[in-house]
Amino acid sequence: MGKFETLDYAVDPDGVGIITLDRPEALNSFNPSMVAEFGQLWARIRLEDEVRALVLQANGERAFCTGVDVKQWRENSDNPWYQDDPGVHLSPKQNRVWKPLICAVQGMAAGGAFYWLNEADLIVAAEDATFFDPHVSYGMTAALEPIGLTRLIPLREAIRIALMGIDERVSAATAQRIGLVSEVVPAAELRARAHELAARIAAKPPAAVQGTVRAIWESLDVGRKTALERGLAYTQLGNPIGMEEVDRENFERPPSVTR
Q1: How far is residue 204 from each of residues 95, 207, 212, 240, 256, measured CA to CA in Å?
Q2: Selection from 186, 245, 184 nearest residue 210 by Cα
Q3: 33-77: pLDDT as tens digits
Q4: pLDDT 10s digits, 174-222
Q5: Would the pLDDT of 150 be above 90?
Q6: Would you tell me how many other CB atoms lie within 10 Å of the CB of residue 216?
Q7: Which of 146, 171, 244, 248 is the most buried (most CB within 10 A)?
Q8: Mind listing the domains of the chain with CATH numbers?
Q9: Mind listing the pLDDT tens digit for each residue in 92-145?
Q10: Is the CB of residue 166 less than 8 Å from the CB of residue 132?
Q11: Beta strands, E only, the chain
Q12: Which class for 113: exposed (0-12), middle (13-18), buried (19 or more C-beta within 10 A)?
């Protein structure tokens, strides 16, 4: 459905939008073109009602993404106070995309890859996946990536990833243990498993799914009392729409599995 310079995008019959990072020769690092294309893609996906869940995957075996392409990157302003964070364009939640995102991670996921990982709803990792943040090793402050991580995993785990830099890589098994990764599978099963989960979610009423995603993520920015008050408002707004989307006469309960 859409061929870009740095990524592929297609929507399958299950209502799953599949985004594929396509710079394997550069370890799927993002350059200015990819940043711009993601800004366009998120704006498009928000308006595509047929898209009810998303999978983000990457071509090549060595890396999911290794962050910014330092060979092609140039700040948009020489004045540091007017430089933009690439995450403004790369990150789904910053672009108000409330359709669930599942990241399928193989190989290295480093640095700026956390723009996506920190805003993914589920992460499925191949057994060979590793996670690390190289910024401090190269004399750069690690801020945006670990700040996002602290909302998802224990504080000291996020700090350790930031401070160890390239000296330590978090394995897929450890990433699952600390809560970064939802599931670990053999590399050959990675894409199929991510798609299976996305398709199960996409089969549910979109208003209920997207309202749930929005309510949970927006709760992270406020205190508990305010979050609960907003949550009630979301149910009052979304439940009538979502319940109308359920075909009660032909409703079939899907087989349940134990995780």
Answers
A1: 23, 9, 12, 15, 14
A2: 245
A3: 999 999 999 999 999 999 999 999 999 999 999 999 988 877 666
A4: 999 999 999 999 999 999 999 999 999 999 999 999 999 999 999 999 9
A5: yes
A6: 14
A7: 146
A8: 2-202 (3.90.226.10), 204-259 (no CATH)
A9: 999 999 999 999 999 999 999 999 999 999 999 999 999 999 999 999 999 999
A10: yes
A11: 2-3, 7-11, 16-21, 53-58, 63-65, 101-105, 108-110, 122-126, 130-132, 170-171, 183-185
A12: buried
Print burial letters for 59-69: b (CB count within 10 Å at least 16), e (below 16).
Answer: bbeebbbbbbb
Long-range contacts of 1-10 (CB under 8 A, 24+ apart): 2/41, 2/44, 4/37, 4/41, 5/33, 5/34, 5/37, 6/30, 6/31, 6/33, 6/34, 6/37, 7/34, 7/37, 7/38, 7/41, 9/41
Say how far residue 101 (Cα) sits from the centre of its chain: 5
**Listed range (11-15, 48-52, 78-82) with the worst mean pLDDT:** 78-82
3-class DSSP assignment, residue 80: helix
Place of tokens 């594929």: 20
